[in-house]
Amino acid sequence: MTRRFMWCALATTIMLTAAAPAEAQLTLGGTVYTKFLWGTQRDEGSVYGFTTVPGEGYGDNAQGSEIELLVSARLGKKVEVRSRIHSRFNQNHWTNFGGFGGRNPAVEPGACTAGDCGEFDPRSNQYVKLRGVAVTLTPGYEWIDSATIGANDFGQFDPFVIGRIRYIDRDNGSGLLFQGSAARRRFTWDAVRISLPRLWAGPSFNTGLFHAADGAYGLQMRLAPNPKFDVGWIGQYVNDIEIDSTDHNLDDGRKLRSRFHNAVVGVKASARPTPGINLSGAWYYSDSNSSDEFAPANFSGTSGFSPVLAGRHDDQSWKGNVDLPDFLTGGLMLRAEVFSIGAEYVSMMAARRESDVLLTEGHDGAWLYPGPSNASFGVFPGNPTRIGLGGWYGNAQQVPTINVDNEFTDFDEPMAETVIGWKGITVAPTYTRGAFDFNAEYSYVDYNTNWQAFGNDKLPVSTTTYPVNELDTGVGHNFRSAYAPFQDKTTHIFVVGAKYSFNIGRGVDLFGKFKTIQEEDLRLNDARFLPYVPGDCGGGSCTGRVNFYSAGNSTSSIYGNPTVVTVGGTTGYQWKPFSDIADDDRDLDYRLIQFGVGSQLTNDLHGTFVFERYDATLQDGNTAFQAYNLHEMASGDHAKNKLILKGRYVLQGMEFGMQYEYNFGTYEPDFGSGYVPQTASEAIATTNNVPLGSLGFSGRFGGWNSLAKRDFDQNRLKAYMKVQF
Fold first, then answer.
1. How far, in Å, are 32, 322, 458 from residue 580 at the CA level?
2. Separation in Å, CA 415 to CA 223, 283, 354, 589, 700
3. How many alpha carbons lie under 13 Å from residue 573 in its C-beta half-sphere?
4. Which helix (H) or strand (E) holds 436?
């Protein structure tokens, strides 16, 4: 299949070359990228370290190559054609021996998670795909500068409204883009119709059965009458439609019905009254409507997944910035930002990653899922670590959507996190004097999602229109968790960093950073929402007398009473009864210390060594809360160390890069009191990878939370070779 495609592509290129006008300029180029992954987790699902897509796999051991062929042609000054032919890593291991071997899905059905699909599946047969086909016209008309038909990354728009697609799919999106200007480009405009990506751009991460006519429409205009002021307007409308199954008269065509609509408008302005003052602001309003007929009407209160809310919602988001590039004295710069991102702000085409819409550093990529080893739903057997103890590298990027995309990434890449519901202020001074650089940040974050019972005490907490997408528990901020049934949360972020460059040899940089996060979430803060009446559990048993916070509604639907167990002659509750509003409180004291050195070792080689130390003391509810029953509990003391060695070697058009990490640390659990710890049986020890006879407890859904102290030790390496031609 791959060879046939390559021969067809080559033949097409030759024919285009032969048929092109004499004045046409044909350009061929490309990139070969080879990646090596090695790690002591011993995962080999795919040639990347993280994904949540079922059946895709993830791994820290692999060797794989991909190629990108770029073909472009300019037919005079007014017409340009471009395209690329690109393979993808997926499960294309070198060990596939050119894509052969593996199961035949027609004969041996089953999941493909380690390159064993063989030549019958594009995930492992080293397939090559046609991507990025576009024609750009520059007709020279007064009213239009250019028209692009086909693929585009749509990076000219606003990440709150229409954001760029991730780099590995940079121009997978296609549409019609028209751009124009007037008054010597003091006024510019962009209009676009994007074919809606059916794989994720709608409720439940799809656009339904009928997708050919689904589209996103955008228009933006910008006016800059003088260098000191500009103002812009942007709008977007997403139209996800389905065929009307009740229309049985085919003689006049088929009628359509709405599945999902989303409208977003925004206004942006910036002013520079003096060279030392830069002011900017933006305001956005969104309206979304998801049809109950073709999409979920609600979600489970603790495990709903969707990139958009169910039903009809509208909200607004805004932010304002002040930049003082020469504040008080030479070299001192001050930046400040106030912001509020609506709890129900929905923009289907907003940036999902590779954008950073807020000034704050936010949380760190080293912490992802609740457990100390970054395991997804790690309280249950069969849910291994996804990205590893060390997580991702650096601080998170903030994106204005719950449709966050961290798929197909490796540990040396940044993590994106949702900021839906965030509101607060950031102040960030920087100072530069000679070879010395200093930066700092203080951020106070409150939340528009601080509510009780999802903000409506007349509805059950077991069903909601808010998709929780991994509830917010554990050390870090789960990257796409914006909603929880109960929240009363504040966050304080403080950062101080510095760098000094020594004029030694080819240059030596010393750098370091201190960061602390103080985060408190009282969650359920009103006793009327407790699941059972006061005194329901007493004398060694519970009667099950349900407490209703409104007619027919009780949190007992998600917080069931414990049974009585006897362990080693001690009788008591299997977990603590949820009888106090403090049972689910979250309190995080988080610290990061980083220092490193970097140097240009030779003309071609640059090396960097970094040490990072993380300490986190966490109270994340007790056994009554159980991290919403689904996740591995993480209360206790965490210590994580990262030794990082990075290198980059450039030789003509070839680049070699490498990042090695040695991650080690400890976790000492502390789940509070009010229950009888149990001992791990042989079955529990085997399925949960804990010592036989070690202490823990079995929760409401049967998952095991261990009380044993854990010591971590993980090596991982990523190296790559990139050749451009």
1. 60, 44, 22
2. 34, 26, 9, 21, 32
3. 22
4. strand 436-447
How far apart (Å, rounded) are the C-alpha atoms in residues 528 and 555? 10
Compute the CA torsion angle 116, 120, 121, 124 (nearest 10 deg): 50
Pairing verdict, β 397-399 and 416-418: parallel
Of the candidates 672, 673, 666, the residue with the CA atom closest to the CA atom of residue 708: 666
Helices within 217-372 (DSSP H only): none
Q: Residue 13: what pLDDT?
A: 47
Helix, strand, coil percent values for the chain (each to nearest 5): 5, 45, 45
CB neighbourhood size of 32 (10 A): 16
**Taking the CB of residue 524, how many other CB atoms lie within 10 A of it?**
28
Tens of pLDDT, residue by residue over 186-205, are 999 999 999 999 989 999 99
- pLDDT tens column, 375-397: 888 888 777 778 999 999 999 99
Minimal CA–CA distance to 421: which of 368, 364, 358?
Answer: 358
Range from 6-10, 106-110, 563-567, 626-630 carrying the lowest mean pLDDT:
6-10
pLDDT at 108: 65
Residue 386 CB: number of other CB atoms within 10 A? Answer: 22
pLDDT tens figures, 495-544 = 999 999 999 988 999 999 999 999 999 999 999 999 999 999 988 889 99
Q: What is the DSSP annotation of 333-379?
A: EEEEEEEEE-TT---TTS--SS---SSS--SBTT--SSSTT-BTTTT
Closest of 723, 721, 714, 655 to residue 38, by C-alpha: 714
Cα separation, 248 vs 571, whole angstroms: 67
Distance CA 490, CA 421 (A): 12
